[in-house]
Structure formats: structure tokens, C-alpha cells
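Appendix B: complex inputs.
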Amino acid sequence: MTTEPIKQPRRGLHLGDRFRALPKPARIAAIVVGIALLYVLPLKGFYENLGFPIPVGSGYLPFYTTGSDMANVLFQCGYYILLALGLNVVLGYAGLLDLGFFGFFAVGAYTVALLTSPDSKLITEYNWLESPWPWLVTVPIGVSLALLSGVLLGWPTLRLRGDYLAIVTLGFAEIIRIVAKNQDWILNGDRGIPSVAHPPGTWSDGSPVFGILDWSPYYWLVLTVIIAVIFLIRNLANSRVGRAWIAIREDEDAAELMGVPTFKFKLWAFAIGAAVGGLSGTLWAGQANFVNSATFSLENSILVLAAVVLGGAGSIGGAILGGFLVIYLPEWLRSVGDVFGWPHSVDVFGIFRLDTSPTSLRFIIFGALLIVVMIYRPQGLWPNRRRAAELKDRQKEVAPVE
Amino acid sequence: MNFDDLIQGFPDLTTTGLAQGSVYALVALGYTLVYGVLRLINFAHSEVFMYGTFAALWTWGLMGYDSNSTRPSLGMALLLILVALVVAALFSGGVAVLLETVAYRPLRKRNAPPLAFLISAIGASFVLAEAMGALTERRQQGIPSILPSTPLFTAGGWTVTPVQLMTLVVALGVMFALDWFVSKTRFGRGIRAVAQDADTAALMGVNKGRVIALVFLLGGLLAGVAAVFYNLKQGNTRFNGGFLIGLKAFSAAVLGGIGNLRGALIGGLLLGLVEAYGAALFGSNWTNVIAFVVLLVLLMFRPTGLLGESLGRARA
Amino acid sequence: MSERKPLLEVDNVTLRFGGVVALNQVDFTLYEGEILGLIGPNGAGKTTCFNAMTGVYLPTEGQIRFKGEQVSGKKRNKITKMGMARTFQNIRLFPEMTALENVLVGADAHNTTSVPTALLRLPKHWREERRSKARALELLDFVGITGRSDDLARNLSYGDQRRLEIARALATNPALLCLDEPAAGFNPAEKVALLELIKKIRDSGVTVLLIEHDMRLVMGVTDRIIVLEFGKKIAEGTPAEVRDNPKVVAAYLGVPDAA
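Resulting structure:
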């Protein structure tokens, strides 16, 4: 009777343990199958054959975002997952609250735009470039510049107390946005930069792989990048670097007294987070074709924060889940809402018109979830193994009392 | 750099700066009060302020004045402002207390780490702003014209508009009242006790929960007052308008020494002046950048601000 | 004590906080291979002295030299790298890390793997990782918590947490280990075991500085004792000498000790 809570651990944990108990070849096979499945996700046929009952004549497909192109939604999920992975290094591992994270995304995106667009002022006004560069060349430049700006922002601010760091980074990103919006000499303000290049490649019939009709290749590209980034971040996490980060998060003074060069590793966390954020920006710019300051609003920074915190700070799985949820869920709910006649706006007392579309409400909902998660589940939906283990231990401790 | 503009406009810039600075100071007090007692940056305070601007706007709407109305008579104008002050202060105060109850109190009970408070605060800020956005269709809302913008008097190059005069007078009055409240009353003693040592204060019979709620209420009331004057000066408000004022008010609080009430006043006025002079020097596009640069430089070289941090130790 | 090489020299150190004099011209030398006790009543300045040595505070006057090199003003992680390690009066482990990882953080003090090496898993990463892990397991064994290497530090018992802190400090490969009240909260049996551990540490070639409240522990294990009172050194000598020093009796032993 009293052992009941132990016999029923949470399902996620159970799956994780079971997975780890498998022999290695089986684990590798499972991972390969899982990844292959991810590549199939944008294909509509996949959903038609899922076998769920479909309301007749609704045009609805289970899990498919009927309101918008599924491949596009998945691509958006992809670059948010990248952002979440980057912020997870800064916030989840090193425990630094960086609220200006989207600023690094902007650095990556603007770099690509300025260097690849024929309408870039670097070409039309300043003659710094003779002709636009190809997208692929500008990606490493964008990532490097993002990394550099991470170091430049981190250098003065990482000596500040944690709460000050949050507000300074937040202010910094907002100021960058205002400057980008107001000035005309290079980023072109609100009018932005059009005709940004796409990634290279053509199909056998000569049409470009990365065109504007089919978004799937962009998703496949970002998925591949995500897998590579996960691999690299895991390398860092399971090394001296990762240990130093977590030690800093847990007790910065003790870490320093144990010989950890804390400032150096905090700066590295900042720089790596920024580089991943910048990488996300370069990918996004390659698809978006048009970059202006409106993209880099504060809401997006907070959405990335929500993704990391909801998924579970310090957990790579959590960052993936979180990044996926904050984009996919509202889009999918919109499709579902259309089927069941969810209203787009509601009159309140005849005075206000409340905008009730899921994409508008998502900010309210994810903001509220930040509070709820902090209160009831600070380890997030998909905590890392460490935290999960702790939870299990606590269950054991509590069980006999019940 | 444009020194001519600065020198020629100096008197006007000074009055503008002081009026704007009073608004910052009132909002900064909210940050400082909460920080002094809880060591927490109340991130959502900017939204408490923003709700005040809408409360005032709706009050005027219910009294028959919207952005298309003709300007009322002086008596009616004073009545409109008075009613708006009361309603906005109470509304903002209510939002602040609600915020404390929903977003912070449960975390305090669980003894959560500081990072959790910060994230919860950001969440709350986001919910409040976006809820207002959903209600107002994310549009900018015009404020009715209530006071004339012509100068009230001119003396030796100094011109003062009615809004500026009223802002400065009311802000200073409110701040002296707060100073008196914190240093002389029983409630104020409770606040100072909790600020110095929350646990000991609790052992001595101070109701910590109530003191904290009171601090949030006070901060909200002041933000509501600031909101009315912001409306009068700015002529419009929008759902995400709190953010920038919040950031600047926070800078002002840090400038004066966060946790220090008089510091917030001085920091606010100073920031208002620096901004006004800076805008003349570098162009008005850079106004918002100036406050931030001030904050950054300050945090790096003198993070305790001009007057030092302490709510408990200072007389007020 | 025969003439030996000085390891740590505290040279007329004064430390003021505002108007308060926390340390007043404290002066002593620690020799290689000994166990030195630093004792004194509460508020005598023991931990302050400790913090000045490990670089947490900067002395107002005077010098602290470690292996002949000035310590004051050096970065704290550099001081650790020079060979001085410490534990904390109120345990400060990394609670969300396993016992093994805690010790690895200490062992990392002398590793040089940084981001590029770790990112690409270069041979150096593996070499250092293997060596550190072996060393960490050895140390966990040394302090007597062999079986708990994969447990989170927060889930260890109080006594095991104290032992883990010692293992973590030893992992930095120190010449000098400073223990800040390591027996606080221990029962007599645990204290005896700790005594043995401290002797074992010394025998392994590490000099030990012991701040302690429990007189019996200090008397039982130390070679020499320094007594502080109100930030001043009032006595120095072997345990027997100190025990018989009337000043010490008045200041310290005269007061019944609850510990």
C-alpha cells in the first residue's frame, strides 16, 4: 500500500530508464529510426496514413497544421529549437539569465541579409562589396559575429549580479532593436533588406532545392543542423567545460575556490549561446528572404525563454520539446480551432474586442505557464537525468510517510 | 553633437527633464520599495504602470472624454485629473497586489531560488502586457486633451506648461507623503524592520506577508499616479508602452541606489535631465539609448548608486 | 619540531572592515608536513584569517606568502592552482552534481581542456578525463565514500557530505589543505574517524591547517596550535604548551565548551 507511489513512477522516466537498459545496438537502431521519422514529418501523406478518425469534409488531418503549411511550421519550430538549445547553454548550464538572447539571432540574420542581398547598402551605397555573396559563405561569418557580440556583451556584464545581468541584457537587445529601427545608414530601419539569398542547390530538373514553393528542404536543413549542434553541445556538457558551468550555476564562489576560472567559462557560455543563436538567425534569413527590425521584438526573446524553462532548464531534450511546443502548439490549435469553430475574437461587455486567436493568446498562455512551472514544476517537462533522479529520490523519501 | 541647441534650449530642457524625471522617480519608487524589502527586481512593475495609464484612459472615457473631445474647462479638467489619479492609483495598486499574490507569494512559500522569482516575474509581465494587447487590439490609444499645452508662465526664458508644473508638484508631494509614511508611521516601521532583517522582524511579531503586500500596494499606487501624468504629457498609450518606462525607471532606481527611497527621487530627476540634455546634444532618436548607457556605465563602476542601497538603514 | 621549509607565512596581517578590526597583526608560519591548529572562541577571527589566506578578503596591512609567493590580490582560482585548497564551515558542495562530479571539478583545477578541445573530443580531453576520473574514484575511496560516487551530493548524509568536501579539495592536488571546522555537527565516533582521516592526509604528504572548535580533536591531532582572540594571536606552541598557557585558559578553555 505504502509502496504504491514507487511502483508508478512518471511515464517519461520509465521510458528513459527502459531505453537506457536496452543493449547498445538496439539503442542506436532506435535513435536512427527516430531521426528518420523526424525527416518524414513535413510530408502530408504521413498524416493521411496515421489512422486517426477524421471529421468528414473538414479538411482536418491529425497533428497536421491545416491552417498553415506544415513544413513551414516545422521549420519555425526548428529555428526556435536551435535558439532554445543556445539559451539552454547560458541559462540551463551556467545559470545566467540572458534576456537579450534574440539579439544574437538578429546579428546572424542581418549579417546574411547585408552580405547576400543585391539591395544591401553595402553594395548599393558604400561599394564595400562588388556583388552579393552566396548564402553558404555568410553563415560562418554570421555565426562568428554573433559569437563576437556575445563576448562583447558578456565582457562588461558578466561581472554583474544575476538580476542585474537579466535587465542589462534585456535593455541591450531592446536598444539594438530601436537603433536598427531608427537609423537608415545600413540596416534600413523598418523597410528592411529584401531579396536575401537562399541556401544553394538545385534538383535534377534544375529548380532550386531551397525555393519558395516547398518549405520541406528548409526543415530538413535545420533538422540536420540541430542534430549536429546537439552532438557538439553534448560534447561540451560531458567535459570539464560542462562541469565548470554547472558548478558555477550551483555555487559560483565555491567553484572559484575549487580552481574554476569562473569568468572565463561564463564568457564561453555566453559566446556559445550567442553563436548558436546567430546560427539560427542565418538559417532563418536564408528562408525568410526579407529581414527588418520588426522580427526581433521582445516577445520572441521571452518565447525562447519560455521554451527553455517549460522544457526543463539544463536539459537538451527539454530545450527541444520546449522549442517545439511554443511554435507548434499554437499553430496546431489554430487548425483544431477552425474545425470546432473557435472564435477569432470575442466581445467583452460590448466595449472590448478580445483577440482570441491561438497565435495571439499563446503569449498570454506561455507567460502564465512560466509562472506555473516556476511554482509547481521548476525542473520543467523534460528534466535532465540528474533532476529526474532527484525527483525519484524525493518520491522514495515521501512514500513511507503516506 | 549640437551644443547650440543645448545652450539655447537649456531652460526648456530643464523643465521638460524635471517633469519627465518626476514620472521616472514615481515608477522608480515601486522598484526600490520592493527591492529594498525582498531583494527582488519586480520585473512586472512596468506593467503595473501601464495598467494605470489605461485605467486613467477608461475613466476619462466613462466621464465622456475621449481623444476627439474638445478640451474641458479648467474646473472640469482638474476634476478629471483628480478622479483619474484616484482610479489609476487604486487600479495599479490592485494589479500590484494581485501580481504579488499570484506570481511571487507561492514562490516565497516554497523558498525558491532568486532565478525562479525573476522568471516568474517575466512571465507575469508578459501575461499582463499581452492580455492588455489582446483587449486593445494591440493598437495605440489616444488620450483626450485635458490641459492646454500653452505655457503657464514665462520668465527670463523659462517656460512652464500646466502639465509640467502639476507633475512636479504632485510628484514631490506624493514622495514627501511616502517619506513620512515610511519613517513616521507604524506601517513604515514594519517595512523598515522587514527590509533590515526579515526573519528577526517576523520573530518580533511583524506580519511579513502583510508588509510585503503593503509594499507592493504602495509601489502600485505611485505607479498609478505616474501613469496619469505620463498620459497627459505623452498623449497616447499602448499595451507595450510600459516596458521602456520600466527600464528607465529601473535605471533611475539604480542610479540613486536601489532600495533607497530618496535615491529613487534623485535618480529619477537626474535621469530626466540627462535624457533631455542628451536628446538636445545627440538628437531625439537617441533618447532611449542614453538611459541605457547611463545604467550600464553605472552598474559597472558604481553598482550601489549615488546614495547607496538601503531601505532599512536610511531614515526613509 | 625540527627546522623545516615554511609553506605559508602570515606576516603581520591586519584586516579592517570599516571601523572593525577583524584581524590585528596576526603573524605565524606554517611548515611543510605539519598539522597546524587554529583555534579561538567564536568571533576570534579564525574564518576571517582563513578567507584572507584563500583570497576571499584582501588584507589591509601585511602579507600572506604561500611557497614564498605573495597571495594577496591573486585570483582565487589561481591561489587554488598554486596548491592551497579548502573546505567550508557550512558545507558548500554543488548539490545537483553527483559525488564523482564534485570531485572532478576539483581535479579539473589542473586540467586545461577548454571549449575547442572538448567540442572536438581531442585526445587531450580523453586523457585528462580518464586521469581525473581515476584520481576522483581513488579519492572517494580515500575519504571512505566509495559506493556513493553516482549519488547527488545533496542526497548524501551530512557526514558523507563533509567527507566529499575533503575529497573535492584534495582533488585539486594541494600542498596545503585548510579545513574549516570539519567536525562541526559530528558525533564522537565520527570525530574519531575524522581524526584518522586527517592523519592519513598528512601522511600522504599534504600539510593541514585545521580550524576547529572542538578542543579534544585539536589536541589529539595537531603538531602545533595558534590561538586567536579578538583578532589577535595570544599564544602559539605545541598542544601541551597551549593547554598550560594561562592566557589561553582564561580566554578559551575557561569557557565551558558545548561542542
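The beta strands of chain B are 141-142, 153-155, 158-160, 236-237.
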